């Protein structure tokens, strides 16, 4: 508020004048009849007393008149501004890109969160539109999403804006601007624009200027939001022995100075270590174990611009995804010994997956929790407990490959290979020379040529009904199933009618087997969901029938798409899922690039005043003046009605 405005409003202090005037008024002495007084000549009384405040109606009118006079003097000096669009045609089509990313939780220059200020700006822009104008709303939190398709219903746009809330996602400005341009690019309005309401902090401060090269003109409407702030985020916390390994990222060295990481269980501090003054790094915090069953969190001390990323759940440290295999290592290794052919094949593919040998198929599903996939080579059947563990593992997203050989065909009574094969099968010493190359080419590509002849010394023959339930990946040259797969719950069951033993064939030494193993590992990676992932990254729940969760934003349900159920957490924190009756715990972690709060540059055309700007509201001084005249008129009427008759002398 300027000095002149404050001085004009100071006129309101004169409201005390009617109070003083009414308090200084003297009222007549109250008469008291006295018989003897009739013998004394009447004289005017000289003694008067101060009266209490009276004529309250008149006093109220005078006080209101002075307040109205103060407002009348100040109203021309007060400038209230609102965002509005400029026009070059009769109608307008705009796409509002509203940034709902984590950095928009930081305070704006006036102390309010940036998202609240940006949403208010969007509401002002919608209020300035006319009938026939079209508006669309796109959210810039990664991935960019359409909150409202292009519509001429301005009421729907206002309702959509009122319901929007900030998230902890990363920023996808380029995707949001491109989406907005697509939404309005084909509309009949000649004047089309994309309005960006963002702090422009998308982790690419050196990226091309916003609006440069856009087919639809871009306007960055609130440049005051783009200001760097100090922020640090905990990206993850894993327990490794007696230490907790905490990964962090900061917007600058100053944001990390003087802060420390504390590992806590409730209010109990289990350990602490100072935060390194760097942009990104790790801190090893010596911390004692927490109480059994209690959740342990790593927390940052001090305050920064965003509070939601200063806390992370401590998980048990896990390395790359593993493939467990149950097989006779002698049959999977060369005569000279060394690593098994499966381990060598994974190494040759360069996959971030390791092969771990197991003595037998686990009979508890908890023993398979560390694996993304399981390979079982020619087992002597599976016990009921093992079948239950393998089936549950697959239904929860695991991928299992089982090969059939002579041992599996001669399994003892009660040890079957259900659910892979439910009917009797046999082992035959006779087999075709190789596979059907043409049928395998869609999956294996050119590598299928290597399976034309691989000198098998036998194969398993399964019932046609079991083979029909499988999707044939590779078939023998006579059309029988060699490798097949089918979905089981959220996972997959793979079946091979040829064991992996080097004594029975050189299948595992062919490039075609590497391609098969690559497809198997790809299925495992796609279906295996890590306990910790970046916020906004979807969780694929293919095969799940019923899913619900409870997280930082309350309870929720997944979306159903062509590939099954998916859920995309929008807030950082711990999520407790219920998938087909089983409980799962997952963590949504901040995205490191979102902590970089440096804004991107803006193209000169995107900041031009020709797109629109802040416009002053209509002056209301004339309304105040009319009110003041009305109060004066009311005062005259009241005075005329309450005037006292002249006293008799």
Assembly state of the chains shown: single chain
Name the CATH architecture of the largest domain.
3-Layer(aba) Sandwich
CATH topology of the largest domain: Rossmann fold
| Strand portion | 25-35%
Number of domains: 5
Q: Mean of residue pLDDT?
A: 84
The major beta sheet can be summarized as: 7 strands, mixed
Describe this structure in words.
By secondary structure, the chain is of the alpha/beta class. It folds into five domains: 3-79 and 620-642, no CATH class; 81-227 and 597-616, von Willebrand factor, type A domain (Rossmann fold, 3-Layer(aba) Sandwich); 232-316, Sandwich (Immunoglobulin-like), CATH 2.60.40; 321-527, Rossmann fold, CATH 3.40.50; 532-592, no CATH class. Helices cover 24% and strands 27% of the residues. The strands form eight sheets. Strands 12-11-14-15-9-10-13 form a seven-stranded mixed beta sheet. Strands 17-16-18-19-24-23-22 form a seven-stranded mixed beta sheet, sandwiched between helices. Strands 6-5-4-7-8 form a five-stranded mixed beta sheet, with helices on both faces. Helix 1 (3-9) runs antiparallel to helix 3 (56-74), helix 3 (56-74) runs antiparallel to helix 15 (621-642) and helix 4 (114-127) packs antiparallel against helix 5. The two termini are 58 Å apart.
């Amino acid at each position: 508020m300027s000095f002149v405005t404050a001085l004009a409003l100071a006129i309101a202090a004169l409201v005390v004048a009617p109070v003083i005037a009414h308090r200084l008024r003297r009222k007549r002495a109250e008469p008291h009849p006295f018989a003897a007084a009739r013998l004394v000549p009447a004289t005017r009384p000289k003694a008067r007393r101060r009266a209490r405040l009276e004529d309250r109606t008149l006093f109220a009118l005078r006080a209101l008149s002075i307040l109205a006079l103060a407002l009348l003097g100040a109203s021309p000096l007060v400038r209230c501004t609102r965002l509005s669009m400029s026009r070059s045609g009769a109608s307008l089509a705009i796409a509002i890109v509203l940034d709902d990313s984590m950095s928009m939780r930081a305070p704006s220059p006036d102390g309010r969160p940036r998202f609240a200020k940006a949403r208010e700006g969007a509401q002002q822009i919608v209020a300035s539109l006319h009938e026939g104008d079209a508006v669309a709303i796109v959210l810039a939190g990664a991935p960019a999403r359409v909150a409202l398709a292009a519509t001429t219903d301005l009421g729907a746009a206002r309702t959509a804006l009122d319901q929007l809330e900030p998230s902890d996602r990363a920023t996808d400005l380029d995707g949001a601007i491109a989406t907005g341009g697509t939404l309005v690019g084909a509309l009949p309005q000649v004047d089309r624009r994309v309005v960006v309401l963002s702090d422009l902090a998308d982790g690419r401060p050196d990226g091309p200027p916003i609006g440069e090269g856009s087919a639809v003109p871009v306007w960055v409407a609130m440049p005051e939001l783009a200001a760097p702030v100090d922020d640090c985020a905990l990206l993850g916390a894993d327990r490794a022995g007696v230490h907790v390994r905490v990964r962090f990222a900061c917007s600058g060295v100053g944001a990390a100075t003087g802060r420390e990481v504390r590992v806590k269980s409730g209010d109990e501090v289990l350990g602490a270590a100072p935060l390194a003054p760097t942009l990104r790094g790790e801190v090893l915090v010596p911390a004692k174990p927490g109480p059994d069953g209690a959740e342990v969190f790593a927390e940052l001390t001090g305050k920064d611009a965003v509070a939601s990323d200063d806390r992370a759940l401590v998980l048990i440290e896990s390395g790359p995804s593993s493939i467990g295999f149950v097989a006779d290592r002698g049959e999977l290794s060369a005569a000279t010994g060394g690593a098994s052919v499966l381990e060598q094949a994974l190494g040759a593919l360069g996959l971030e997956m390791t092969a771990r040998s197991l003595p037998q198929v686990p009979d508890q599903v908890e023993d398979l929790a560390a694996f993304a996939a399981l390979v079982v080579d020619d087992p002597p059947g599976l016990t009921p407990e093992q079948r239950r563990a393998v089936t549950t593992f697959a239904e929860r997203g695991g991928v299992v490959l089982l090969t059939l050989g002579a041992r599996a065909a001669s399994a003892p009574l009660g040890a079957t290979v259900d659910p892979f094969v439910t009917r009797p099968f046999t082992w035959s010493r006779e087999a075709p020379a190789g596979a059907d190359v043409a049928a395998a080419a869609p999956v294996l590509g050119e590598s299928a040529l290597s399976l034309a002849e691989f000198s098998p010394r036998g194969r398993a023959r399964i019932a046609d009904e079991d083979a029909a339930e499988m999707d044939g990946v590779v078939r023998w040259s006579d059309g029988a199933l060699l490798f097949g797969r089918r979905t089981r719950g959220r996972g997959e069951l793979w079946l091979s009618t040829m064991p992996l033993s080097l004594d029975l064939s050189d299948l595992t030494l062919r490039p075609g087997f590497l391609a098969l193993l690559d497809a198997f590992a790809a299925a495992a990676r796609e279906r295996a969901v890590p306990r910790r992932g970046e916020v906004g990254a979807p969780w694929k729940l293919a095969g799940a029938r019923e899913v619900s969760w409870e997280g930082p934003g309350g309870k929720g349900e997944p979306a159903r798409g062509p590939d099954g159920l998916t859920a995309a957490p929008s807030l950082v924190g711990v999520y407790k899922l219920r998938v087909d009756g089983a409980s799962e715990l997952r963590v949504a972690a901040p995205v490191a690039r979102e902590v970089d709060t440096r804004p991107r540059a803006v193209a000169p055309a995107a900041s031009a005043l020709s797109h629109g700007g802040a416009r002053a509201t209509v002056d209301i001084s004339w309304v105040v003046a009319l009110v003041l005249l009305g109060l004066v008129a009311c005062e005259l009427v009241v005075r005329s009605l309450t005037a006292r008759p002249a006293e008799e002398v």
